[in-house]
Amino acid sequence: SREIHLASRPEGWPVDGNFRLTEVPVPELQDGQVLVRNTAMSVDPYMRGRMNDVKSYVPPFQLDQPLDGGAVGEVIESRSDALKPGDTVLHGLGWRDYAVLDGARARRIDTSLAPASAYLGALGLTGLTAYAGLTKVAEFKEGDTVFVSGAAGAVGSLVGQIAKALGARRVIGSAGSAEKVERLLELGFDAAFNYHDGPVKEQLAQAAGAEGIDVYFDNVGGDHLEAAISVLNKFGRIAMCGAISQYNTTEKPTGPRNLALAIGKELTLRGFIASSYNQYADEFAALMAGWLRDGQVSYDETFVDGLENAPQAFIDLMKGANKGKMVVRLG
Ligand code: NDP
């Protein structure tokens, strides 16, 4: 079997040389374990943080050890009572062709509802991030105007569509290309702009108009966050989901220089980690199934083929090569 190891820790932008494709034997199954042939794996921005040797809410990847992350696959062999060969499962041992793990750490998924890869995105943690961040963290309510950055990405594109489905007054998105902006309008965003076209603050103020915005779902940080603080209405709420503009820089970020505006506007800024909202997974799954069925929400996926191309897919993800969820197909 093949797996991808972390060969060295990236400084700034990751490069191909930080990764190594390694051949390893598939271990014998122990009682309770299953052998899974992975068919798809997720690459996610949070993995960049795990490549640094720092303590965070997930432990860092270890040098010369396989990376891990979300994956789906087919059970080939089972010594677990819970799973049988042929089952399609979701688990946490991506970045490899074959995974051996405890049956209790793999969850059977229903591929009659959606293809397996959707459980890495819209029907999985990506979807929960969008839903919980919007409704629980930012306390979205009907009639709110919502701005979301990274809007053509996996989380962002769902945030905008979920907000519309829940009765947003208007939804505004920002993304990194004209093609992505066009896609956002197709997905039902009321306004969208390319943040490369000019200062975010000016473009956001123009898109928001006199009505301003009530909720900002932040995937980007930096100038996007500063712009949102300027444009937010009184009692506005910010869900701090990610700060991808800072993940690969080696300079110290400049803060939102206008943070003091939060006082007079009585803003709420709240960070969150999706896994802390697991208690809403069932509520979300039921709603999402309905929205997908009714066509109120649709999800994009960008596929890259082959385990050997997973490191590049990860690098390209952070450079914006994806529309919707970036997924690496295996086997
Ligand atoms: P995406 O699918 O959104 O992919 C990342 C996107 O970020 C790229 O496509 C790129 O699009 C954009 N991007 C890269 N650099 C910049 C930049 N300097 N400024 C603006 N945009 C940039 O990934 P996800 O949907 O998986 O994740 C989105 C965010 O949510 C990330 O910040 C991630 O860390 C966070 N997250 C947080 C979770 C939590 O529990 N808090 C859980 C999951 C994700 P473009 O072409 O538009 O630049």
UniProtKB/TrEMBL annotation:
Domain of life (superkingdom): Bacteria
Pfam families in alphabetical order: ADH_N_2 (PF16884), ADH_zinc_N (PF00107)
Domain named Enoyl reductase (ER): residues: 17-328
UniProt-listed SUPFAM superfamilies: GroES-like, NAD(P)-binding Rossmann-fold domains
Keywords of the record: Oxidoreductase
InterPro entries xref list: ADH-like_C, ADH_N_2, ER, GroES-like_sf, MDR_fam, NAD(P)-bd_dom_sf
Stated name of the protein: NADP-dependent oxidoreductase
Origin species: Arthrobacter pullicola
